[in-house]
Write a structure and sequence with these properties.
With 122 residues, this protein is mostly loops. Helices cover 10% and strands 11% of the residues. The protein has helices at residues 18-21, 57-64; strands at 28-33, 44-49, 94-95. It has a three-stranded antiparallel beta sheet, with no helix packed on it. The relative contact order is 0.21.
């Protein structure tokens, strides 16, 4: 992280397991959305897994040192780079989670062809 603080920086990474970065789950929700920074093009398929990914305070601190610009032309740090909650605008929210499973007594049942929709995504 120390070598890639600015846009355009790079460093070789060896022995990185993407699978090792993700929690052990196959369940997720997905929806069509937009980038979080202007011009906010609607070209993103967001995937929300049903388990959190934990990081340490040190890792969070290192991420907050990253800059949006280059070393010669630094811009704001990459903190608070999120948008307020947006309207769903009739976008379907899809999931592979089986809510009809009788072992999950606290979850509502769901027919196979039903999509979740809401006014806002939170």
């Amino acid at each position: 992280m120390e070598k890639i603080r600015y846009a355009g920086s790079w460093t070789p990474v060896e022995h990185l397991s993407i699978h090792g970065l993700l929690p052990s789950t196959k369940n997720y929700m997905t929806y069509e959305g937009s980038l979080t920074q202007p011009p906010c093009h609607e070209t993103v398929t967001w995937i929300v897994i049903n388990k959190p990914i934990y990081i340490t305070k040190q890792q969070l601190h290192a991420l907050r040192k990253l800059h949006q610009g280059t070393k010669k032309s630094p811009k704001a740090r990459m903190v608070n780079n999120f948008r307020p909650t947006q309207q769903m605008y009739h976008r379907p929210l899809r999931t592979n989670i089986d809510f009809s499973n009788s072992r999950q007594l606290n979850c509502p049942s769901m027919s196979r062809q039903m999509y979740y929709t809401a006014n806002t995504w939170r």
